[in-house]
Specification:
337 residues; alpha/beta; Rossmann fold; Dihydrodipicolinate Reductase, domain 2; 2 domains; six-stranded parallel sheet; 14 strands; globular; binds NADP nicotinamide-adenine-dinucleotide phosphate
């Protein structure tokens, strides 16, 4: 069986990875419809000898589609997801528009696949930092019972879209010529800098991005009492987020059990040989399907405490790959209608 697939936001940083991964994973599509704004309408997308004309998104864009992966921001998702759903197309949404909607499953296929099967036409993909953090946290939760965590993120610029990636490149190029160009996407220069600010600030001083880790982790792992304290930081890395986590668990930590739990979990690798200078780094996990965990050590700062570092490609596991995995899951469970 084959499926008609749309990508809303096909020209963006995530959209381009979706096109690549649908091909790489041999997703069974019979038609690929590439949707974006009027800015891109009529442009030609080429990939592996095939070409598609980008279409401007409108009310009838979703007719006859089986799936559409939305990657065009929350505003577009709010406008077009109900229309797509009405047209009988299953929406897998990368924006934050529906993540906390109780009627919309929020899914990481390795963690809560059954939730996807309860969909009513829209399935939400988690925030990129949440997805990557949970690939390390969930197997440890299964082993020891997660209670709380403190996280600090090291977020790549491609997490802010194609324009931000260009901004880093432009600033680096200007610097190499002894020039300075003012920032546009970020409030401060990102080249040779770190910015302790991702997304808008709430009145309590936390950012919306920091609170996503709390709320989305609770929903995905079904842990209503989980406590999370997060500081999100943008770093001049092109691609792949990293998160330093110190977590507190219900039960005493046995390091060898913790390591076995990570090794046994699908799509996460244990890279933890500090004596050989081996630990996960974004440069090694860009364009890689697996996330990786390392620097694992017990800590007494929290009860049954464990500190570790997790890295993963936020364009893939944090967006494009996770969305395609959800579609593959529905197909494999015959739930794609
Ligand atoms: N980047 C990541 O790592 C990441 C991770 C997780 C989730 N997400 C989410 O995924 C979404 C896309 O992110 P991105 O990084 O790919 O952004 P991006 O590179 O800025 O791309 C945005 C895409 O949205 C399209 N778009 C903008 N306005 C539109 C409109 N009015 N109608 C139709 N299409 C429109 C753009 O089309 P044009 O080219 O025509 O402007 C482009 O294809 C966002 O919701 C983001 O929060 C991103």
């Amino acid at each position: 069986m084959t499926y008609k697939v749309g990508i809303l936001g096909a020209t963006g940083a995530v959209g381009q990875e979706i096109i690549h991964l649908l091909h790489e994973r041999k997703f069974p599509f019979s038609e690929l419809r590439l949707l974006a704004s009027s800015r891109s309408a009529g442009k030609v997308q080429e990939y592996q000898g095939n070409s598609w004309t980008i279409e401007e998104t409108n009310q009838s864009s979703f007719k006859d589609l089986d799936f559409c992966i939305f990657s065009a921001g929350g505003g577009q998702s709010k406008t077009f997801a109900p229309i797509a759903k009405e047209a009988g197309c299953i929406v897998i949404d990368n924006s934050s528009a529906f993540r906390m909607d109780p009627s919309v499953p929020l899914v990481v296929p390795e963690i809560n696949p059954e939730a996807a099967l309860t969909h009513q036409g829209i399935i939400a993909n988690p925030n990129c930092t949440t997805a990557i953090s949970l690939m390390g946290l969930f197997p440890l939760h299964k082993a020891f019972g997660l209670k709380s965590l403190i996280a600090c993120t090291y977020q790549a610029v491609s997490g802010s879209g194609a324009e931000a990636l260009q901004e880093l490149d432009d600033q680096l190029m200007a610097w190499s010529k002894g020039k300075n160009i003012p920032p546009k996407v970020y409030p401060h220069p990102i080249a040779f800098n770190v910015i302790p600010h991702v997304d808008d600030f709430n009145d309590d001083g936390f950012t919306r991005e920091e609170m996503k880790l709390l709320h989305e982790s609770r929903k995905i792992m079904d842990l209503d009492d989980l406590m999370v304290n997060c500081t999100c930081v943008r770093v001049p890395v092109r691609r792949a987020h990293s998160i330093a986590i110190t977590a507190s668990f219900e039960n005493a930590i046995d390091l060898s059990v913790a390591k076995e739990a990570i090794k046994a979990f699908p799509n996460v690798e244990l890279i933890d040989n500090p004596q050989q200078l081996e630990y996960p780094m974004p440069i090694n996990y860009s364009g890689v399907s697996s996330c990786a965990l390392g620097r694992m050590r017990k800590t007494e700062i929290l009860p049954n405490g464990l500190s570790f570092w997790v890295t993963g490609d936020q364009l893939w596991k944090g967006a494009a790959l996770n969305a395609i995995q959800i579609a593959e899951l529905l197909i494999s469970r015959n739930s794609a209608s």
